[in-house]
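#dry-run=false #mode=assembly
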Amino acid sequence: DGGITQSPKYLFRKEGQNVTLSCEQNLNHDAMYWYRQDPGQGLRLIYYSQIVNDFQKGDIAEGYSVSREKKESFPLTVTSAQKNPTAFYLCASSIDVWGMDLGTEAFFGQGTRLTVV
Amino acid sequence: GENVEQHPSTLSVQEGDSAVIKCTYSDSASNYFPWYKQELGKRPQLIIDIRSNVGEKKDQRIAVTLNKTAKHFSLHITETQPEDSAVYFCAADRAQKLVFGQGTRLTINP
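#status=ok
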C-alpha cells in the first residue's frame, strides 16, 4: 500500500486544540486534496492544491488551514475554530492535467479518524 | 457550481442479482465521471470511470452509462457477489477538482 500515506490513523483532540494531519505522496503528482467524510454526506472538499506554494479553498474550508511547501506533502491543520471536527479525513492526489480539460483518477490515502474528546 | 446527487443511499440485493446506482450532476461542463468503491475502514478506490465522449463503458461485471443530455450517469453491477458489499461514490469534475455524491451503501445478501 504505497503511494499516498496519511498519519496518524487515529487522532484525539481536546476542545480548543489545533491538530495537524499528515499527508505524503511519492507518486510525483502535482495535485493534492483534502476531503472530509461524514456518514450520509459523501466526501466534501476542504482544500486543494495544484502546485507547490499554492492552494485553494474547497466547499468547507472554514476552521481548517493547509500548506504546500513541498510537492510530496500537504498537511492539514484542524484549528479550534472548526466547531465540529470529529470526522474521517481523506487526503488524495492526482496527476494535474486539468489544463488539458482531462479529469484523472484521484488516489486516496487510508484516512485519519479524528475524534474530539 | 457542480452539484452531484446520488441515489439510492442504501441498496440491498440478493447475491447473483444486479445492482444499479444512479447519479445526476448539474454542470454541463463536466467531462469526467469516476466511480469509487470504499470497503469498511478502507480508502476509496476507483473501479471504473467514463468521459463525456463515451456513452457506455464496461469492465467485466461492472458497467457505467452516461447520458450527457439528461446529465445523469449510472453504475451497473451484474451477478453480484458478497465482496461487492461496500459504499459506492460517484463523482463529476468541476473546475479542476472532483465533486462527490453522497454515497450508496450496497449490501449483498447470501
